[in-house]
Amino acid sequence: MKQEVVLEPGLWMPAASMTLLAARLARAGYRPRLFSYRGRSPLEASIERLAQFAPSEPAHYVGYSLGGLVMLETLTRHPEIAVRSVLLLGSPVRGCLAGRRFGRHRPGRWMMGACGALWEERE
Predict the structure, then answer these.
(1) What digits encode the pLDDT tens for the residues 66-77?
(2) Which residue from 9, 18, 23, 46 has the least number of CB within 10 angstroms?
């Protein structure tokens, strides 16, 4: 049985942005699954959607940018999800100065939506 890999893109990126990586993983013998979310949707909704999307068997998880933060939050809050490995690519796990600066302005806050809090500095 092929091992599943859940791929999650960054903010404002469609799941299709992960298709090249998915194709390469498929050629390497994995079964990729693309998860999409809306950055302006409530963070809790994205977390619960990913928890429902998660395979029942242990899987690998790859999240890019904000998608990695949503993934990390999901896996932290749902320890029942079976995980083989987690890879966060360019995810601001300790906050993001550019994101904080962008969020200071009205258009930035609107574009970041409910995920804006994830860009804040963390310890």
Answers:
(1) 899 899 999 999
(2) 23
Which segments of the chain have a pLDDT < 50? none
Instruction: For residue 53, give both structure tokens.
Output: 């999307």
What is the torsion angle, in degrees rounded to the nearest 10, for the CA atoms of residue 101, residue 9, residue 117 and residue 76?
A: -140
CB 39 within 8 A of CB 93: no
What one-letter code names the amino acid at 74? Answer: T
**70 membership: H or E segment, kind and range:** helix 66-77
The two most distant CA atoms of the chain are separated, in Å, by: 49
Per DSSP, 80 falls in state: T
Helix or strand run (H / E) with residue 88: strand 83-89
Question: How far lies 19's CA from each of 10, 14, 33, 81, 120, in Å?
Answer: 13, 10, 10, 24, 29
The span from the CA of 122 to the CA of 7, in Å, is 24
